[in-house]
Amino acid sequence: MPCERKPMRYGHSEGHTDVCFDDAGKYIVTCGSDGDVRIWESLDDDDPKSINVGEKVYSLALKNGKLVTAASNNTVQIHTFPEGDPDGILTRFTTNATHITYNRSGSRVAAGSSDFMVKVVEMYDSSQQKTLRGHTAPILSVTFDPKDEFLASASCDGSVAVWKIEEQTQVTSWPLLQKSNDVINAKSLCRLAWQPKASFFHLHLLSPSFSIPCSFHQAINVVAWSPCGKFLAAGSIGGLLTVWDVESKLCVERQKHEKGYTVCGLAWHPSGGQIAYTDTEGCLGVLDGLSSSSSSSSTTTPASYDDLFDDDDDRPMDEGISEGARSPAKNPGDEDDDDDLIPATGRARNRSSLKQGLDKFVDDDDAGSAIVPPAAVAAPLRPVYDGPMPTPPQKAFQPGSTPAHLMHRFMMWNSVGIVRGYNDDQDNAIDVEFHDTAVHHAMHLTNSLGHTVADLSQEAVLLACPGTDELASKLQCLHFSSWDTNKEWMVDLPKGEDVQALCLGQGWAAAATSALILRLFSIGGVQRELFSLPGPVVCIAGHGEQLLVVYHRGTGFDGEQALGVQLLQFGQKRRQVIHGEPLPLSRKSHLSWLGFTAEGTPCFIDSEGVVRLLNRSLGNMWTPVCNTRDNCKGKSDHYWMVGVHENPQQLRCIPCKGSRYPPTLPRPAVAVLPFKLPLCQTTTEKGQMEEQYWRSVLLHNHYGFLSSSGYEIDEEGQSQAQKEQQELLMKMFALSCKLEREFRSVELAELMTQNVVTLAIRYASRSHRMALAQRLSDLALEKANQLQGEEPQEEEEEEPLQYTRRNTGSGLGRSGSAGGQNRVTNVLDSMMSSSKKPTALLSSSGSTGKLNKTPFLKPLAPRPKTKVQHNSVYVRHKSGFQLWLEDNRRIILADNPDLEETDVIKEAIGRFRTLSADDRLVRHLTHLVRLEAA
Amino acid sequence: MDPSEVEFLAEKEVVKIIPNFSLDKIYLIGGDLGPFNPGLPVDVPVWLALNLKQRQKCRIVPPEWMDVEKLEEIRELERKEDTFTPVPSPYYMELTKLLLNHASDNIPKADEIRTLVKDIWDTRIAKLRLSADSFISQQEAHAKLDNLTLMEINTTRSFLLDTLNCMYKLRSNLQPGSSGGKAQDHQ
């Protein structure tokens, strides 16, 4: 049943509203908290007639030209319709009435009030009243049965009761609803509705009891039967409007309120072709075009049932039962109870059972439930498909942007600057602002193309807009760091292809499109490679020469997302580092930020606030490094990430009180969170040190990566980090010694470098742990052997790049003091390799040249030529030992002139070892003393 | 003490700024400042914050108490209590004046804040005058005033002391027999 949802219009000031049609369906009548009743000829009626009936109107009912309203002066008044003249007071309560309704013929009015009473009043003789007492809380809703014999009421005490009107007695009551203390606090208005007509197989005016399995996030607020009794419409707290075909139990129509406000009034047009609804913000809306199937039934069914009803005016009695959010666990029990009660009451009841679930998949649900035969009334209601539910895939987004529907939003906030988008009545503009004004001055652009996604780097601003019917999707780049005068370029995408995500790297830009293509551009606008993505893109991020792509691998179930990740590296060595492996998110979460740390390590955050960092030393696994939610005070507070730095260890984010993202005004302030690996027992000293150690190891991984991909690194920082790690190891070693954990001490010693092991030996022997010292010295020997063994291999196996890490000016100095240690070889070897290496991989752009600190990627400087160059040809590919041997062979031969070549080497190895060991001891003596004092 | 001297002392208070430039740690006699990262809040003394602000090198993050709601609360409390209530900062008046004069564009609802702080100040000064008045009229020998800020003491100190001196002289002249008065006079 395709229907048209007309745009909503303002009806009343915000607050509770109600709506109904007049008998002929000519007018829509609404009431609201402004105390007016408005009579609309149609939704487009710009001058509706207003009748003021009080300060506030809580409910209204209209029949036979009499408009009954429940006003805040505790009365139920009558007005003539459509004139709107006061026609007396029908009844009074001690507080205001909450809901009023006519019976079928219009001869009686039932009113429920906040003073716990329900009154049934004869329309033409208001002295004839019947009072129904028994509820213990304000009444939410009342309804007559079609035969006028019974009345059902719902109350804030959580019960739904059926009363025999004549006897003023309660027939039955079901505890179905959630209790509350007042109507305004009730989860749902719990409007009830009696099916207007009996159905085919219960001719004794017993309608079948049936339930409609509907899955709602929110409680249903109001329900209404179509005049023909064949359809049931419901409006929910979250603004979802649904129409079911009752017989087939199929959902025939589903509409979402345009702003998601609570629907609090719902009425069918007498012809059944239209539904008017109002929301708690006072707006009125209409669903039109329901007629195609409902009108046909409304013409046929009344005809066949005319004999059953004396008065057939096709008006639905308002509203059906809706139940406040009940827990799914409670459902089966309730259903059984209800089903048992049906024969006893013999009354038509309908019930919408609520189930927590995902509204997107209700259609599946309904389809499944349609298999249940309508006759099988008592059968417990279960959707046929009971397995895991697919999760709606998360939409593509730009990391560091706030949602696109906001009028003022951040289109990008990253470590370079902020791009803000304004889209209100007078202005459609984009502001670009740089954190560091040295990069570029702030820019203000008019957003005539309607750009929705943006990225910002030290070199350029990249913007893109989705395509429209006439215009293709466009990619615009403001390349402000260009040295020529043309600072801007634009590219049109092929028809039907929209940019969904984009990012900037160093010297390149990338855009992922709806056609599952990732397009690369140079920063100057040259089209480069393009390749297909394995799934719809979620977001992409760029840094230096790296590109990180996250896409949907498939369908996730039960709230999980199935995301895949690819990490590509351009530049000199083009390769895919991560080949579409699954992205590990927390349970039932989605991706909320993706990017690189300033040092170039991929990093992402899920909606649960867990930050994960790529651990390159652990086979490109993701390690959780922080849970930002741990730092939140409130439950609904979040941190909105803007940048991650490994050195210093900082998570830069914006604290958002009670939301997931910050508003543009007032200007949010950045806060810094620390990293914290979720290791066990971090309250103990041991746990703390372990956490510190592994955090340090993890967050200094980037040195290895940076140097291997040819960037200059902060040598000082690296040696600082190594020193810190070794110190931590030594502390842990001392701690476990203190705790008599010698085995653990040896384990820790295995992580130490050889130098520190010597220190550990000292410590052990000082504290009289000879067994430990013995084991450690074995270990030290082993380590020394390993080093020796590795050396010859290193030269063939290791990549030449490996050397650059050690290849420093200071390394050379140290090698001199360390005597025959392996340093010498490395320096010389790396000189060989450095001559093979490209001297500068990256050309520094204008902006990076200006800055002395911000860009963390510095091009590799040409290696300084050292004086040792002259003998480099000779000693090429020789280990430290070999070098030492060259120098000392003569001495050894002099000492033992009759040795064979192999014996000479054996002897030399022995000497070399003692020599280096001594050296080590001397070098670390001072260090050792200091640590032992501590 | 000159009010400008009190203001000078207030300038040593620490305030958060968001710099728009990049600079390593700077080492000053009063302590190390920085490092300055563009876009990242950093604590600096007010004098530096204002200097940078005037050169358009930073945005100032107003102190936490410089917030309409919090100040309203303080104002109500100040009006309700007979004694002096604790103030959010020992230099609240000076800081408000300095920050609002130089960085009102970085402080939301600057005008309201100015009015509120002025209200608080006026209430407190009125209390101070009142207590000085009762101090003198009742001829008390000593009084105790808690939670007064330096600036507040400063406004009344010289005047009050001089007045007391004067009054003492007048009084001792009225009672020529009193030996203590004479002894004082000779000093």
TrEMBL record, chain A:
<protein>
    <recommendedName>
        <fullName>WD repeat and HMG-box DNA-binding protein 1</fullName>
    </recommendedName>
</protein>
<keyword id="KW-0677">Repeat</keyword>
<feature type="region of interest" description="Disordered">
    <location>
        <begin position="291"/>
        <end position="357"/>
    </location>
</feature>
<feature type="domain" description="WDHD1/CFT4 second beta-propeller">
    <location>
        <begin position="395"/>
        <end position="679"/>
    </location>
</feature>
<dbReference type="InterPro" id="IPR048591">
    <property type="entry name" value="WDHD1/CFT4_hel"/>
</dbReference>
<dbReference type="GO" id="GO:0003677">
    <property type="term" value="F:DNA binding"/>
</dbReference>
<dbReference type="GO" id="GO:0000278">
    <property type="term" value="P:mitotic cell cycle"/>
</dbReference>
<feature type="compositionally biased region" description="Gly residues">
    <location>
        <begin position="810"/>
        <end position="819"/>
    </location>
</feature>
<dbReference type="InterPro" id="IPR055339">
    <property type="entry name" value="HMG-box_WDHD1"/>
</dbReference>
<feature type="domain" description="WDHD1/CFT4 helical bundle">
    <location>
        <begin position="687"/>
        <end position="785"/>
    </location>
</feature>
<dbReference type="Pfam" id="PF12341">
    <property type="entry name" value="Mcl1_mid"/>
</dbReference>
<dbReference type="GO" id="GO:0003682">
    <property type="term" value="F:chromatin binding"/>
</dbReference>
<dbReference type="InterPro" id="IPR036322">
    <property type="entry name" value="WD40_repeat_dom_sf"/>
</dbReference>
<feature type="compositionally biased region" description="Acidic residues">
    <location>
        <begin position="791"/>
        <end position="800"/>
    </location>
</feature>
<keyword id="KW-0238">DNA-binding</keyword>
<feature type="region of interest" description="Disordered">
    <location>
        <begin position="784"/>
        <end position="823"/>
    </location>
</feature>
<dbReference type="InterPro" id="IPR015943">
    <property type="entry name" value="WD40/YVTN_repeat-like_dom_sf"/>
</dbReference>
<feature type="domain" description="WDHD1 first WD40">
    <location>
        <begin position="9"/>
        <end position="286"/>
    </location>
</feature>
<dbReference type="GO" id="GO:0006261">
    <property type="term" value="P:DNA-templated DNA replication"/>
</dbReference>
<dbReference type="GO" id="GO:0043596">
    <property type="term" value="C:nuclear replication fork"/>
</dbReference>
<feature type="compositionally biased region" description="Acidic residues">
    <location>
        <begin position="307"/>
        <end position="316"/>
    </location>
</feature>
<dbReference type="GO" id="GO:0005654">
    <property type="term" value="C:nucleoplasm"/>
</dbReference>
TrEMBL record, chain B:
<comment type="similarity">
    <text>Belongs to the GINS2/PSF2 family.</text>
</comment>
<dbReference type="Pfam" id="PF25005">
    <property type="entry name" value="PSF2_N"/>
</dbReference>
<keyword id="KW-0539">Nucleus</keyword>
<protein>
    <recommendedName>
        <fullName>DNA replication complex GINS protein PSF2</fullName>
    </recommendedName>
</protein>
<dbReference type="InterPro" id="IPR021151">
    <property type="entry name" value="GINS_A"/>
</dbReference>
<dbReference type="InterPro" id="IPR007257">
    <property type="entry name" value="GINS_Psf2"/>
</dbReference>
<dbReference type="InterPro" id="IPR036224">
    <property type="entry name" value="GINS_bundle-like_dom_sf"/>
</dbReference>
<dbReference type="GO" id="GO:0000811">
    <property type="term" value="C:GINS complex"/>
</dbReference>
<feature type="domain" description="GINS subunit">
    <location>
        <begin position="65"/>
        <end position="165"/>
    </location>
</feature>
<keyword id="KW-0235">DNA replication</keyword>
<dbReference type="Pfam" id="PF05916">
    <property type="entry name" value="Sld5"/>
</dbReference>
<feature type="domain" description="DNA replication complex GINS protein PSF2 N-terminal">
    <location>
        <begin position="2"/>
        <end position="61"/>
    </location>
</feature>
<dbReference type="GO" id="GO:0000727">
    <property type="term" value="P:double-strand break repair via break-induced replication"/>
</dbReference>
<dbReference type="InterPro" id="IPR056784">
    <property type="entry name" value="PSF2_N"/>
</dbReference>
<comment type="subunit">
    <text>Component of the GINS complex.</text>
</comment>
<dbReference type="GO" id="GO:0006260">
    <property type="term" value="P:DNA replication"/>
</dbReference>
<comment type="function">
    <text>Required for correct functioning of the GINS complex, a complex that plays an essential role in the initiation of DNA replication, and progression of DNA replication forks. GINS complex is a core component of CDC45-MCM-GINS (CMG) helicase, the molecular machine that unwinds template DNA during replication, and around which the replisome is built.</text>
</comment>
<dbReference type="GO" id="GO:0071162">
    <property type="term" value="C:CMG complex"/>
</dbReference>
